[in-house]
Amino acid sequence: MAPTSSVLVQPVVSDRAATQPPIITSAKTLAESATLTSLPSDYSFTEDPYQPADPNDPQYTVPTIDFSLLTSSSPGHRSKIIQDLRKVCQEWGCFTVINHGVPESLMQAMVDAYFKFFNLTEEEKSNIETNHGADRAQMKYGTSYNVGSEKVRLWRDFIKMRVHPDFHTLNKPEGFSEVAMEYSKKTREVAAELIKAISESLGLDENYIHKALNLDRGVQFLLTNYYPPCPQPELAMGLSHHTDQCLITILADNDVSGLQVEHNGKWVSVTSVPKAFFVILADQMQILTNGKYKSVMHQARVNKEEERISIASLHGPSFDTLVSPSPELIEREGGAPIYRAINYREYVDLQQRCRMNLKAALDEIRI
């Protein structure tokens, strides 16, 4: 499919704005200001539901999955890694993936392409002609407030674009489209293999989740956050705590750490591993497994010295799919569904409303 040449709306200020929102300064522009010596008061973030974990405590060591063992010709190797994956999904809901087969050169090219995009002028980023039809969810650029209270701004700029089943891309910088298309394809292949393994780890057919959620037409977004150096990082937040609305998220970055995940009521800082992906299970996985596998809470912190790029490849069902707890799992385990069935598009809308009201969408559909 030929790329759709498509870019950008005005920076996002509030979803409730009835008229065109006022243009606000991007985090990047603010960070590069010669007069900036301290964090502006509207970026001061005090809400934090958890305390940091002790990095020397082995119970807070994020697990690693060797992807090559999932595709190994050895039944014993695959069986062992499936068992490991079952435990990781139950206890953590996230893991580092090594030996995934996506070329390091492609991962670096994608990071470089996004740096080039965020280094465009604010006028270029904000006013390039859009071509996204009636569905404005296909492409969005902005610098955002905390979507919960809208009282605290986040220290990030972002670009989000839908890349499957239809592919939307940027026409600047040059060459971005080709890299993004290849990267989207490769991460979709990794996601598909992981989802097969997760399905098998549940004692289901390896294609069960794929078929149940219509993943041939599944929705994939690339959501990329840019976090500039911050003068007072201890007071700021790059991305406030949340769970992802999709099925599974595959993260890459520029080898600068900043991600934190919740584990046993503590924030665990994730060390960025070169050439690796970080995988996060999301809300649709928790619904489908009837709570057996968790959708992990996470957030992004910032630092004073280095800029950070985080590329999230978000994989979800098709928008018209009705997602519900697996009847096969419920029957086998002798329980009852704890979530009501919900259309994926309806869930996406529900999550946005819930975050505006500081609620969790999963709690809203709990029976």
From TrEMBL:
The keyword Ribonucleoprotein does not apply. PROSITE patterns: FE2OG_OXY. This is Fe2OG dioxygenase domain-containing protein. Belongs to the iron/ascorbate-dependent oxidoreductase family. Residues 218-317 form the Fe2OG dioxygenase domain. One of its GO terms (molecular function) is L-ascorbic acid binding. InterPro entries: DIOX_N, IPNS-like_FE2OG_OXY, IPNS-like_sf, Oxoglu/Fe-dep_dioxygenase_dom, Plant_2OG-oxidoreductases. Keywords: Iron, Metal-binding, Oxidoreductase, Vitamin C. The keyword Protein biosynthesis does not apply.
